[in-house]
Amino acid sequence: MKQVIFATGNAHKLQEIKEILVDLDWDIISMKEAGIDMEIIEDGKTFEENAIIKARTIMEATGKMVLADDSGLVIDYLNGEPGIYSARYMGEDTSYHIKNKSLVDRLEGVPQEKRTARFVCAVAAIFPDGQVLTTEGKFEGIIGYEERGENGFGYDPIFFLPEYGCSSAELSREKKNELSHRGQALRMMRDKLQGQRGM
Fold first, then answer.
1. What fold does the segment set 2-197 form as a domain?
2. Is 70 labeled as catalytic in the residue annotation?
3. What is the pLDDT of residues 57-80, one digit of tens each?
4. For residues 167 and 110, is the Cβ–Cβ distance under 8 A?
5. Residues 102, 104: Cα–Cα separation, whole Å
6. Where are the domains of the chain?
7. 198/180 Cα distance (integer angstroms)
């Protein structure tokens, strides 16, 4: 079985990734499981640049193929905030309950048609020979008026999907993986890898 490192320390994210890529006969492990403990400076200007930085840093440290993603919430009314700073918004150690309340408060009085937002996820694969593949997925919705749901993490409870009448955190895990930005980007990456490398 091919072992691939996914450059994350987020257990929730790794679980989603494994579920989405379950039909690839790969052993997908986290940085921690690979014995890597290093800080990665994400100084890119886009989600794609940051995904490549993460993947390249870990590939150079291990000599193995590495997958990485960078994702975040883009709110149109707030000029794209929190964007690439989604994880660091209000400080990395600040709870998402506090972050979510802040964003909802900042949109107080804003009508639904101007609350448009999307989750964006870029995935990068870097091979030991330096080859880079990237994909990007987008998940459209609006910012809700309160936190709803227990099935998601991060900003999921305030990301409302009008066509489903629920927040991202109220979707079943299977439905979320089907619709989500990360699900889209990972499936595109899976198809690229299978098509290019016979994997």
1. Maf protein (3.90.950)
2. yes
3. 999 999 999 999 999 999 999 999
4. no
5. 6
6. 2-197
7. 26
